[in-house]
Amino acid sequence: MQVREICEDELETLVVDCWLPFAEEMGELDEYNALAEHVRNGDLDGSITYREELFADEDQRTYVAVEAGELIGYATAERTETPPVFARGPAVNLGELFVGEAHRNDGIASALIERVERWAEAVDAERVTIAVNADNEPAKALYERHSYGIRRHKLDKTID
Questions:
Q1: CATH number for the domain including 68?
Q2: Is 159 inside a domain boundary?
Q3: Which of 28, 43, 41 is nearest to 136 (CA)?
Q4: Total number of domains in the chain
Q5: What are 10-27's pLDDT values in tens digits?
Q6: Residue 152 falls within a domain, yes or no?
Q7: Would you state the pLDDT for residue 51?
Q8: Which site from 53, 55, 73, 142 is most exposed, i.e. has the minimal number of CB atoms within 10 Å?
Q9: What is the pLDDT of residue 54?
């Protein structure tokens, strides 16, 4: 298994093989993450365009886990500046982390986290941040094993 930065010609494969299954799992955890109707109907053009835009952004990275030529997992990361009123430096946000079900518990998620952390060091980030679904116990346990702790609780409210 190899963890590396994604290549542009792999973006459509990423959407189909990894991002869509990730989004489906997130939707099963919480209706808040339900798939958009056009995606449920098989229209992935907007999703591919979205990934192409992220690929072109120098503050974004997508790392993939590849085995036998197949994408079996991925992680996204974004470098962000801290507002100047705070005494902390820039951060990298680990936005998405997914490993295909057949490859879980093989250390792939850990390898992806470590790759994001190495990039964070390379871009002089002070910390890596992660948001996790409140009901995603396996992900929370994984992040805790990597020494991530709760700093903030994010709350939201649906506006009717």
A1: 3.40.630.30
A2: no
A3: 28
A4: 1
A5: 999 999 999 999 999 999
A6: no
A7: 96
A8: 53
A9: 96
Closest CA to 73 of 85, 63, 82: 63
Token pair in block for residue 16:
């189909």
Report residue 126 CA to chain centroid gap.
Answer: 19
Q: Does residue 150 lie in a domain region?
A: no
The per-residue pLDDT for 160 is 87
User: What is the pLDDT at residue 134?
Assistant: 87
Mean pLDDT of 84-103: 95
| Structure-block tokens of residue 78 | 């974004």
User: For the range 57-61, what are the long-range contacts, defined as Cβ-Cβ under 8 Å and sequence gap of 24 or more?
Assistant: 61/5, 61/116, 61/119
Please give the torsion angle defined by the CA atoms of residues 81, 128, 123 and 74, in that order, rounded to the nearest 10 degrees. -120
Q: What is the C-alpha separation between 98 and 21, in angstroms, rounded?
A: 9
Instruction: Report the first-to-last Cα separation within the chain, whole angstroms.
Output: 47
Domain contains 77? yes
CA distance 114 to 62: 13
DSSP string for residues in 119-136? HHHHTT-SEEEE---TT-
Residue 155's Cβ-count burial label (10 Å; 0-12, 13-18, 19+) is exposed
Integer-rounded Cα radius of gyration of the chain: 16
Q: Which domain holds residue 78?
A: 2-145
